[in-house]
Every structure is written in C-alpha cells, then in structure tokens.
Design a protein that fits this description.
The protein is mainly α. Helices cover 74% and strands 0% of the residues. The chain contains nine helices and no strands. The two termini are 35 Å apart.
Length: 183
Amino acid sequence: MDIAQRRRKENIAEYILYLWQLEDLLRALQFSPEAILSTLVRPRELKAEEEQLLLAWYLDIAQLLAEEKKEEKGHLAHTLHLIRDLHDMHLRLLKEPDAEPYRARFALLEPHLPTLRKLLGNENVSDTELCFRALYAAMLYRIKGAGESAVADTLAVVSPVVAMLTDYYHKVERGEISLSEEQ
C-alpha cells in the first residue's frame, strides 16, 4: 500500500508495473489470506495495526480481481485506465510543438512496434499498452533469468520512451507544463 502510493506519486509507469506484478503474486498465492499474510505482509515486520491495513489492501486488490473476473489472467481496469490516460498524452505529445524530443525518441521505437506486437500477440492494444506489456514481459524474463539479449533489446528501445512519457505525465499532473487538448 505504502509502496504503491509512493510509486503512483513518483513514477506512474513503475506503479502500473508494480500492480501488475502484485496481481500475479496474488494469483500465485491463490488469493489465500493466510498465504498473503505470511508471504507479503509478515516479512515487512510491521506493527500489528499496519499489518492488518496492508493485508486488507492486498485483499481489496484480490477482491477487485474477482469482481472483474480476472482471477486467472488480465489486469485491473484501474491500471488499464491509467495506460489509456498515458496513451492520450502520447497522442498529444506527437502533435505538441514543444515535444520534439519525445517525437524523436518515439521515432526510434516505432519501427520495433510490429515485431513487439507479433511477439506479444497483442494486435488490438494501443502502442502505449504494448510498451507496458513489453516492459512487463521483459521484467518476467529477467526474474526467470531467461532471454537476456531480447530483454536488453526491448528495454533499450521501450524504456526511454516510457520514461519520457512518464516524465511529461507527472509534469502535467503537477502543473509544471501544459499541453494542448487537441488530438
């Protein structure tokens, strides 16, 4: 809960990827309150009240997954909505006169998008969601210790675009810059 809140405030991309990882962890623990408590909560050595709050937060996420019928696969509507917001910003940045650095960075990624779509099997997702799916797949491969060159290649082209998009997102959110609303 505290980690997620901090990530949401500091880096929306890390927040989304953290929640996706948490969804998979909860699935692996079969949504068992006892397993969640022993695996995710107790190792943090919190006070009893904090433990209960954290456990309740994990169980709330598990309940949302059940309500959205995503107990086996898929991502919460909340994170997909955030990705749509980021994609809207991406589209605005592609037209924004002052966003040439973003357009130049995205131009380096654009030729790789068809290959990523084919590899990930996600033909009907936005470029932004595709980038997040690629980053998450790379993270999973890294955890498994597999596909090092593919992971490095993916991260080299996708990460800079997502990082720049995230930076713009937070600057707009904090009111440091303003972008035109037209798309």
